[in-house]
Predict the 3D structure of the following.
Amino acid sequence: MSLKKKSSYPESWYPLCYSKELKKGVPQLIEVFDDKLVLFRNEDGAPTVVSRFCPHMGTDLSKGAVIDGELRCPFHHRTYGKKGECLKVPGLNEDFKGPGLKSYPAVEKFGLIFMYLGQRPLFDFPVFPRVKGEAAFSMALRKNLKTPYSSLLFNGFDTHHLTCIHNREIIAPPIMGSDSPYHLRASFSMKVLVERFYDIAVKFFGVRVVDVVLDCWGGNFLIITNKKTKDNILITSVPRDTQNSTFFLTAVTNKAEGGLLNDLFQRLRLKLTTYLGMAFLKPDEVIVEEMEPDLRSLHPQQDLCVLKFWEFWRSLPKKTL
């Protein structure tokens, strides 16, 4: 077991992997939050997230098996359920139950598996403001970056870099707001300047001024709403350790009605939106790697959104694994 000091991170919903990567009957080891966790599908087929080592003798449970939805230790065959509880200790009275595993709330949404860092969620899994009923989504794109988690977080709220890097001119001061202690919103308008292929594609679809709303939950779960289009972008991230992070990007909208042709067109549009979203972020990737932000140098007007974000992030309750 690792004895290295772990960092604390905001209590929030974090993405771990694609749904398709977690197979029934096979435990999976995931490296997050300066440590490692074990994922498996329980008897209902739903994802379960538990601590890595068996409390009996410290065996790595990712080397075990999942039998009938129960995680079995490879060493002495103790089994654990969907809440981490010890279900069976072979060779002892059936009434005896050993200590359980630490477990974390988990959900499966948008083709991804998320966990909540904490025992009881302080807020529900975030919803998209414009999505009512059943949602349609594209397969998320994943990117691993050698980027401290803190550097990755504030990027969405850095409106000044939109002009310098992304050919966007902010034409009105951002409006900040919040719906709860775990939520931060920024609304602003941007004029599209033509320099890259991405910008030409955006203008081709008739978008010259982009009205954007950023809804951030828990510091890492960012919903981007473009008021002039039907789709929403989700960018959600998780720290692997203090110097490395992973983020996923997908497009989400209301499920299309009207038959197969409308469904096919929606799938193509969502896929294109997802790829354009990742293309938009491409210039940031090299720049944010190994950044070390210094908040003392931020300007109260030019960097207003970043300052508001850091104030919000610092206020969030933090946990370690």
